[in-house]
Amino acid sequence: MAKQSFLIPLAIFLALVLILGLGFTLDDPHRLPSVRVGQPFPEFSLPDLTKPEIERTEGDLKGPALVNVWATWCPTCYAEHEALKVIEQTGVRIFGINYADDADKARAFLSDLGDPYVLNVVDADGRLAIDLGVYGAPETFVIDREGHILYRHVGAVDARVWQETLSPMIQSLAGAGSG
Amino acid sequence: MWIEIGHFSVLIALLLTLLGGATALYALQRRDVHWAALALAVAPLAFLLILLGFLTLMAAFIADDFSVTYVAQHSNRALPIQYKMSAVWGAHEGSFLLWCLVMGGWMMLVARLSESLALVMRLQVMTVLYGLQACFLLFLLLASSPFDRSLPFYPGEGADLNPLLQDFGLIVHPPLLYMGYVGLSVPFAFAIASLWSGSVDLSWAKWSRPWTNVAWAFLTAGITLGSWWAYYELGWGGWWFWDAVENASFMPWLLATALVHSLAATEKRGVFKSWTLLLAISGFAFSLLGAFLVRSGVLTSVHSFAVDPQRGLAILAFLVPVVGGSLALYAIRAKSIKTSAVFAATSRESFILGNNVLLSVAALMILLGTIYPLIYEAATGGLKISVGPPYFNALFLPLAGLLLLILMVGHETRWRKTELAHLLKGQRWQWLVSFALMGALLSWLESSSIPQALFAWLSLNVLVGLARQWGTRAHLRGRWRALMEQSTSYYSMLLGHVGLVIAVIGIAATSISSIEQDLRMAPGDEVQVGDYAMRLTRVGEVDGPNYIAERGEVVVTQGGQFVARLFPEKRRYHVSQMVMTEAAIDAGLSRDLYVALGEPLGDGAWSVRIQVKPLVRWIWLGGVLIAFSGLLSLLDLRYRKRTTQRAQMANESLATLSQGH
Amino acid sequence: MLAVANLLIPSLLGLMILVSGASVANTVEDLTFADDASRDRYQNLIDELRCPQCLNTNLAGSDAMIAANLRREVYRMVTLGETDEAIKSFMYERYGDFILYRPRLMPSTWALWLLPGVLLMIGIWVWWVMARLSSSDSDDEMQMSETDLAEVERLLGESHRANDT
Asked: Angle of helix B168-183 relative to helix B92-113, nearest 10 degrees?
């Protein structure tokens, strides 16, 4: 066998180490990036949570805004709720999607803990969530004036996430539109 | 206090290991017998100290000592005692302690059982092993110590062991698997010693063989058990998922299998020396890689331990010099190895080479698929992709088919050269018989699948061929004489190959001909699945030692005859609140009946998963036979050597005695 | 009379289909299939689709809510007669290629699908080369070893005599 060919195993190994080392720089393997980013918000027609006789559609979600997917069976959503109330105070619109939940419990949740949402839709069977590519709760989307999805955050929104990521996004959207 | 003693004990073991390595190197330099004796005597002592540490940890579990962080994280007062004990290796820190313990054990055995090995080689092998163990112990003590306490505030109750691990499988699977992984360090050490001394004579091949065969046997047993465990534990009836961690055990197994074959050829015929060295290095390298994958969090897996990138980096930092250094040593030294490779294309050597090439390609293919998601994510800037069973099955199956073909023809080959006429002799008869048997099997399975037929035919062909070969020998020399004259290594080869084809038949049968149905069933409903009528009689609540469960009762009949009463459960464990599916299985040699509860659908109805899996037990039966074959080979090589040695020594001492008078 | 029957029967049938159609569109998985082929398609799809939330399980093996919801979607689409391709497209348009256990063949996965074949070719070539190299020596070797064999025996004979003393 040619003398150089004895180096092949070593070369393969070094390439492997490089790839594995690269693995550490990558994102958490459990976090999925959203493939809906850049696309228009999915079409839907679902009842409003607090006014069930009204049907809401995607046109009712007027951006720039946050769209928050939440449920009463999700423990982190309780903690996130406080942060959302604070964020709402800054004048940002927050829409809610009540995901695979009991509507009565959800209404009780809002009346007990406060309602920072402009409106909430009842996604009882989770179809809208699937169309959004949601795989757990809570998740929060940023939508622009035209109703396109710009960003998805997985997990609870807290002060840091708001300050570092979401707030700048909303502000640039609002700034771009005005004037 | 005992934990501190255990911790200290392992620390001393580390120091002894370093001492052992240093002493061995010194003895090598000086060619000094006394220093050598010291270097070898250290290994058993180090092992005992690690064992002490291990036992103190186990004692802490049994005593519910939640001041020890590891115990608090993985145990609970209500945990049954056998799981408290096996919880020692249920998570990263403790399992790594088990790894070090097993390594210490192998080192002790090598030190004690290598007396007739040339001293230089013996010392070199031990030096490599001491070096490896020192790194392992250092990592254990610095980055993943199970001995840490969380004082002064510690929980009054533990977080409980993951319910999936509260099972017999945890008691046996990791120890067996580690015996295999760690055992591959011995042929690795032999290979390094051989390259180091620059003399690749055949003694290293001869010496490596029993160690390799045993390590390989344990690895086989570990993988087989893991598959069986996943099957009955995970609740969906699968027995292999090409999960990153499963692959991490399968890749070294493939290479170790190639190594077993290559060593045989090297010892018997002096061929493939540099290939065997490379395989010995690669087998252990993939073992280490497996350890990395499981503990680093770089890849997602159901099996992986809690993620800690720092540990992952440490293991990677260890891998680079050890494996990189070995491969560099190989690159430098191996090219000067002169191989007297003299064999024809139709020889046994050639077929073994083909076998090894295919096994290596398979291992590399699995590696590619396993790490591709990483490459993809890096290359596309964050997009994620999955590479799962459809990919691996599609690519592995053709390779497996080729391997079986090589096995089928390879059994007829002779060393150095086989006449084509000899190869084809009796094949026609053999092929026809196998075809008939295959037809019988497929009609019993009521199947017409071509891939299934092909794999079944190849496997049956091997069996018929072996029977024919054996019959021919028996006929030539008289039955019993023929039986006795066969060496144990012939029988272990036979058993290994028989085990393999039995497993393949099982896989072929169950993969294609299993019946799987997800059905809605309410109490009182009866469904027909295959030949079996299954009636869900009731679903009720049941209390377990540390869980509460919904338990269904399913009565199975076949043609009116009672077959089994099955009790699938859906458990919720108190402490962790984890929900687990406990499948009910009626095991049989010809088929398994598998029933699992899905979810409640309202009105007392449940979605129920029912499977009829023909010949699925053959898979693990085959695996067990393969593992046994590895252990059987020990009887041949070592035992006989020992007797001749003893005989020789006895003769010599007699001679000296008689001279004295 | 006949005219009424002509109207009634199709509308009764239509009503039946409507009713059964409604139960198919139920939010809870009925798990009833029109034929075995549909059932097989469903089973295969839930085996090949990955649960987005789990640590490496397919939809078939997962207890997670998202998995149950996705299984329901697969069931719905299978009973509506959608093709496998359409169902998989539905999934990866929402969850990305992550949800497919069989990677699609596209430029970014060419290496994944083609490299193993290349490796196999290389392996066969290596085997071929080694077999050629070794067998071209073999005939010469055998001749040589015959003469050497005689020499070796002579030497052995001498050393045996030496050992007996």
From this structure: 50
